[in-house]
Amino acid sequence: MRFRLTPRETSFYELFATAADNVLSGSKLLMELLGADPATRVEIADRMRAAEHAGDDATHAIFHQLNSSFITPFDREDIYRLASRLDDIMDFMEEAVDLVVLYEIDELPKGVEQQIEVLGRAAELTAEAMPHLRTMRNLNEYWIEVNRLENQADQIHRRLLAHLFNGSYEAIEVMKLKQIVDVLEEAADAFESVANTVETIVVKES
After folding, report:
1. Would you say residue 165 has pLDDT above 90?
2. pTM of the prediction?
3. Residues 6+ apart with CB under 8 A from 26
4. 3-state secondary structure of 183
5. C-alpha angle 13/123/112, rounded to 5°?
6. Maximum alpha-carbon separation in the chain
7. Would you say 59 and 18 are in contact if contact means Cβ atoms under 8 Å apart?
8. Model pLDDT for residues 79-119, shown as the tens digit of each residue
9. Which spans are transmembrane here (predicted)?
10. Please, are residues 20 and 126 in contact by the beta-carbon 8 Å criterion?
């Protein structure tokens, strides 16, 4: 750890933890959507939209703190990148839920539950990891596991696409379902980007 002569703004740690906790809440709403009757999905989408707004608020709070702080706990560009990537995750999850409602999907294809389970596990790991930014310790297992989960998400995504294009669905239905599974895959990519950013921060600070 590099020795510093100046004090550092520490509220960033709490702000990142808040953003990651909100991502975890969003992943739980995704899981709730899986078992929900189509008639109740609108209410879940409303709660997801509120969670996405809360994520925006957390991101703006980090940016505001960044712009008003002379000393930061680590590089400014890394703070900006980490906050932006956490926000991306919420955006993708909210988009997926909204599409399910807007397209009036009666039944999601088999395999989507595996996508959402991977996102849920990545969200848990991310929420657990953020408090460790304060010490920069016990984080290597986090980014290794999230990268493994993203590889798993890639495989699930490919299998889902193969299923969608096997002739069992009407063309318009394929288009709708593909958009949903693609957005969920983007959420998995965003989790990996968060983990990679954390790894970069730790390497720089070691």
Report:
1. yes
2. 0.92
3. 48, 51, 52, 55, 89, 90, 93, 94, 123
4. helix
5. 160
6. 65
7. no
8. 999 999 999 999 999 999 999 999 999 889 999 999 999 99
9. none
10. yes
